[in-house]
Amino acid sequence: MSLVLIVEDSPTQAQQLQFILESHGLTTRIARDGREALALVNEDAFDLVLTDVVMPHLSGFELCRTIKNDPRHKNLPVIILTTLADPMDMVQALEFGADSYITKPYKEDFLIHRINAVLHDARADTNHKFQMGAEIQFLGKRFNITSEKKQILSLLISTFEDIVRTNQDLKKSQDELTSANAQIERYAHLLEGQVRISEEKYGTLMRHAHDAILICDQQGTIVEVNEQSKTLFQRPESGLLGRTVEDLVAPDSRDRVATLKDMIGSEIGTGPAVRPTVEFQVLRQDGSVRHVECSAGAVAFAEGDLRIRILRDVTGRRQAETTLLERERRLSSIYETTGDTLYHLAVEKDGKYRFISVNNAFVTTTGIDAARVVGKLVNEIIPEPSLTLVLEKYAEAIREQKLVRWEETSVYPTGRLTGDVSVAPVFDEAGNCTHLVGAVHDITKLKEAQEVLERQTEVLRASEQRHRYLVDALPHALVIVGQDGRITDVNAQTTRMFGYEREELLGQAVEMLMPESLHHAHAELRAGYLHNPTARMMGTRPDFFGLRKDGGKFPVDVGLNPERTSRGLEIICTIIDMTERRRMEAQMAASQKMETIGQLAGGVAHDFNNMLAVILSYANFVLKAVSAQDSVRGDVEEIITAANRSAALTRQLLAFSRRQMLKLEDANPNAVVMGMEKMLRRLIGEDVQLTTRLAPDLGIVRADISQMEQVFLNLAVNSRDAMPMGGQLSIETSNVELDDAYVNGHIDVKPGPYVMLSVSDNGSGMDKATQARLFEPFFTTKEQGKGTGLGLSTVYGIVKQLGGSIYVYSELKHGTTFKIYLPRAAHVPAETGPQLSAGRETRGTGTILLVEDEQQVRSAARRILESAGFRVLAAAEGDEALRLAEGEPGAIMLLLTDVVMPQMSGAELAERLLALRPSVRVLYMTGYTEGAISQHGVLKEGVRVVFKPFSTDSLLEQVRKVMGTT
């Protein structure tokens, strides 16, 4: 295998030459200039030196001369490789001993052909070379040529081959020129040998030649021209004849023409009539310049010598070469100076990819020297796991015949590199991919910056999430409104309070959250606030309401707080649902009213008793004073009867005012009910069916048994009067625990253990207005003469005097339930059954569909369930509940529904929901007792029911039992 030294100062061209030579079986080394080349020549036994001409420190010509003058290396072949096309270069190459001469640009096959030819000649002639010397004059200079004969011939051939190769784009003209040159040479030889030449053949040659032919005499005067000469110079024949070639040459080229003239004149008759070409510029008649290649020769005749000039117009080729060289220099500069990594790959027949060249950025970025890369396969340079991806992308680019881009991260000596990679295929005329051109833009720092940004964004997102959690945990609604009055954000409580999803509110006018009657006033209020935005309450007016999605109105308080943000001024509105507070205020007012009435009634009863005592005393005096036959006696007896009836009324007033004398003792309400059951049955009549449901482990209360009997008696009579056509009366007892959640909604109750007494009927029921005045003394809805209006007020007074509470649950046409809560006696042992302690509670999971037409009850139940971990879908009535169920993608574990609701009962809702979701479980809630519910006929036997009012523990206990979590 031959060893070739490449001497080239351009790294790109050196790498390209190295790849070409090594791909044809040659071994190469690279020197960056002449000095480095001489050092390598002295170190190693090279078979050939391939050198550029123009290099720093030592040119290619000087390198050649130095090598040839050294006895150790005089037989080392040297090939000159350059972009220069001056004939002087060829002469200098001969003078310095060059073995061959190749001009750039060259074709790969031609380059290899010349190298192999020189190597073959060098091996063949090693032992029998001889030197020949000659002194020549060329372009006004003398040169001493010492090369051996075959070397000179080889260089001349290579120079001629360069001319032929350079003009391949004009091959047809070249062939014609060669033919013409042969004709001229033959013509010259015939003249020289005084052989007759046919004038016809000569004329044909002159007429059909594609190059300009000038025939000059010994003085250089043009004596004959062909048609192409007139075309080249844009002159008529008369404008050429009689002139010299120097007259037609551009001033910058006249020295070269004069030198050519001297060379030809000195060799007349000694050699071929046509000499190697010289390039110069000629002037046209219009002053424009054309580039020509001139082949010149001289022939001796008896009549005198003739000079022949053959000129070929190479202007187009020269312009193309100039453009090509400029483009090559520009691309080479870009290739070497760009900050992006660039590389050039050869696609081999076995499908492998080999590096042809890499730029400086490749070396800087990867830390791998170009000499270690060029000529190597891709899989020898690119590490795994990146290699697999790279090969896939190369195959994709070739298969799809397009540029392919991807991101790739690899580890090189310089560190971890992330690049934006692109690769494009190059195809030959047959459609085969021969090369790949790749570029890598280093985005390592960009990726690192992106990672930092992502981490910062994650921190910001977490902070925003914490902020959102805090805002959503607020017990009040938070609505953020822009200056245009549109909602920009809300918290979770807002969606629960108003019934909208967050997405439904964003971007909407804030007026959608208030009744239409307030829109005009709110617009004026908002305009005034924006004029002077300060933190303040909007007011606690009793007529300021919020509007739910379902159309329901509820009282609210609104606080305003201005905030400057990137979006401009925004108003943070804090909205408090005043429903519970108003209800508590109403309870407080009613309690105070009842307290006032009780105080008044107690005072009146006390004074009235004193007067009744006087009346009865004096009436008895009169009764004793008159005889049995006296007509006045009957009047006195009526007075005494009326006074006794008045005394009974005062006792009821005293009971209402909680001023009657009580005999407190440990009492079992079950025993009281069972003791008076027969009397109650007689009292209510046969048309009313009495049922009792008494808790077997009922607690003991401190009470006056006679007053407790009065309570049951009055309630039973009230229920009987509500069922004139007959019905069902139910008395129930149970133990209950009233917790803080229940107490917070009832101002006159303390938390703790209670005994619940319930009296229910399925009579006519009462409206809200009647219920509001139910316990007022002398208030009655009965006909005149059928009631005093003191029955329920007496019950109220007794219960309050025993430290208990009484509540009524009633709806028109659905009957009434009275629930009485009496404190359990403190000394009675607590129940030993299993209790659900707060510390042992199981967090709830799953979705519960809550349906309750009373908003206050619905809100309280939802809050209890969500605080225990359940997800709650809340609805005010059956149709809304079914719509929520149809739109819910996940499972619904439990339906918690009121029994009696407008439009659709709880039982009907459960039946329709089970048709949609057969696996859902059902728990009913009601203010009636279990017996009353059965009497209404709205529920089947055996269903699960939780009774109102319920505590947190009692509701969650029933929910967990039904869902099977305890």
Describe this entry's structure for a reader.
The strands form eight sheets. Strands 18, 19, 20, 21, 22 and 23 form a six-stranded antiparallel sheet that branches. The chain has a five-stranded parallel sheet with strand order 2-1-3-4-5, with helices on both faces. Residues 127-140, 142-150, 152-157, 193-198, 266-274, 828-840 and 928-932 have low confidence and may be disordered. The radius of gyration is 60 Å and the shape is rod-shaped. With 966 residues, the protein is an alpha/beta fold. Helices cover 43% and strands 24% of the residues.
Question: Could you give a short description of this structure?
Answer:
The chain is an alpha/beta fold. Strands 18, 19, 20, 21, 22 and 23 form a 6-stranded antiparallel beta sheet that branches. Strand 11 and strand 12 (304-313) form a beta hairpin.
Spell out the blueprint of helices and strands.
Blueprint lengths: L2 E5 L3 H13 L3 E5 L2 H10 L4 E5 L7 H10 L8 E5 L4 H10 L3 E4 L4 H17 L9 E5 L2 E5 L3 H18 L4 H22 L6 H10 L3 E5 L5 E4 L1 H7 L11 H4 L5 H13 L11 E6 L5 E13 L2 E10 L1 H23 L3 E7 L5 E6 L1 H7 L11 H4 L4 H15 L3 E9 L2 E13 L5 E10 L1 H29 L4 E6 L4 E4 L1 H7 L3 H4 L13 H13 L4 E4 L5 E3 L5 E13 L2 E10 L1 H47 L6 H25 L8 E3 L1 H16 L3 E6 L7 E3 L1 H17 L5 E12 L1 H5 L7 E10 L6 H5 L18 H11 L3 E6 L5 E8 L23 E5 L3 H13 L3 E5 L2 H10 L6 E5 L7 H11 L4 E6 L3 H7 L8 E3 L4 H12 L3
